[in-house]
Every structure is written in C-alpha cells, then in structure tokens.
Sequence to fold (280 residues):
Amino acid sequence: MDNQDIRKAGLKVTLPRIKILELLENNTQRHVSAEDVYKMLLDKGEEIGLATIYRVLTQFETAGLVTRHNFEGGHAVFELDRGGHHDHMVCMVCGKVEEFIDTTIEKRQREIAKEHGFEMVDHSLIIYGHCGNPKCKVGY
Amino acid sequence: MDNQDIRKAGLKVTLPRIKILELLENNTQRHVSAEDVYKMLLDKGEEIGLATIYRVLTQFETAGLVTRHNFEGGHAVFELDRGGHHDHMVCMVCGKVEEFIDTTIEKRQREIAKEHGFEMVDHSLIIYGHCGNPKCKVGY
DNA sequence: ACTTGCAATGAAAAAGATTCTCATCATCAT
DNA sequence: ATGATGATGAGAATCTTTTTCATTGCAAGT
Fold:
C-alpha cells in the first residue's frame, strides 16, 4: 500500500502526495523533473501547484522514497527508489537513460573512500556517451 | 604560456579571459562557481561582468581547458583541466573536495558502457560521505 | 459523525543561477 | 594604423527552485 509509505514517512496522506507517488510508480520514463511531474498531472486533469510538487518531491527524497539526480541540464530529476541502488548511463544525443549496477565498481568505491579517510555515505556515477541508436552515433 | 591556450582555443586573448584563467590557476580551492570567480575578481579590483564570467567559463569548457561539475547545490562548479582526468569525493558536512583516480573503475566503466551498447564519451563519479575531520563525523 | 489543531496546499512573489540583448569597445590580421 | 569581427558590461530576461501567506483538509479525540 503506497499510502502506508507516505504515512510511514511521517507525512499526512493527501491527494497531491498520492497522485505524485502514483505517477512515479506508473510512468514509463523513470527519471522525471518537477516540471515533468507538474505537466503530466495537469494533463491528467489534476489540480496541483508546482510548489507542491517541489515540496513533496523533497519530502519524498528525505524519506528515502525517491532519489534526486543532478544530471546535466540545469534541473534535477527524480526517480522512485525501488529498493536497489544503481548507477546511470545517459545518451548525450537522445537523453535515453539506462541503469546498471556493477559490484566491482561498488566495492572499489568503498575502498577508495576509506583510503582517503572518508566514510562513504552515497555516490553518483553517471556515464555519458552515445547509445546504440544509429541516429545517436557521431557523424549525424 | 597561458595566453597561447586561449589562442589555441580559437578565442581572442582579452583581459577578462586572462584574468579568469590566472585565477583558476592560482586559486587555492580548485572547484569554484561562476559567482565565486566573479567575487574574487571584484575583490582583486578587476572590473568584470558576471555575464562575461559565464560566457568565458563555458567557452573554456568547450575548448577543454575547464571542466564543469554538477555537484549538489543548484549551481555548477568549474575546475581547471590539468591534463589528467579524475573523480571526486565530497564531504557532505564541510564541503571538502578530494580528487582521485582509479584504473580498475575507469576500465570497468568502459566495459559496462559497451555491454549496454553505449560508446562512452565522458563520465562523472562523485562519492559523497564524511571526511576525516572529527567534526564531520556522524554524531555532531 | 463533529470539532479543532496543526500540517498541507495553491498562488504569487521572491530568490538564485544562468543566458540573452545590444550598444560600445578591444583585438588582430592586413 | 585601421577596419572587420569578435568580446565586453549592464541590465533585462529566462529558468529553476524556494518562500510567504491566507485558506483548506487531514486526523486525533470526543
């Protein structure tokens, strides 16, 4: 039950929060900006303010329901936390995002942090490149 | 000669560009925002516009003289490209930035990209955590 | 079901970062 | 030296995100 997730986060179960969580769960593209969420909900006929989207997404992030990514482009994107951590691969042409996880890299990161006297809390690995689509290859 | 770097980038050698490059070379903190550069140059008595800072930093980035990072915090930071690529480790409390490079991770990244049909062009790896300073440990 | 406190909301304003416009000025090849 | 072209500064504009504040709605207790 999603509503329980909201309640567990110490937040009241309100319509905007339910709608935002539903959208994050059902939307085809997993990485969306606040603006994206706003427009999609408006398109669905919901009445909601952009400020609420930002507030709720930040609360969801604090609660660990959602992760915020600072990809290139001047705006943050949000993604529903489906249990497992993973890293990202972004196509610089079409913007396609692939997710991956690699134990070798994960392990090395912890080691490197320790070597530098750091205690790793989180990390962000983003590979930028050209995806398999021929239109995204160099030369076009 | 720095000015040659500017010229090689196809840019005219102007006072603002020289001053910005000098600052990036001599400043103690290697990661600075456009606003940082602006204030530092003003403090040094230089007359320069913020718009110019943004323009020049973007040009330097395009020319490969400078790298732009999208760390957390809503604004980009820039760093002089001193030849070698490297990744970052950021203290979530004091903001300290350490640099590192690890061949194991570098190699794996290329492999992973290929496995997903991507051709890697660039990447960004940022480890967030608590640095060695006792004040930055959990519990404070 | 009814009240009521406190959190949540929407709209608009504000703040912060970055880009754009445009008139003026400086660089550099000739 | 000089002229074409690119570069600059100031401010306006744009874009993203946060804040303010009056109003509304949830939820705990009756």
Observations:
- The beta strands of chain B are 66-69, 77-80, 87-91, 97-100, 119-130.
- Chain B has a mean pLDDT of 92.
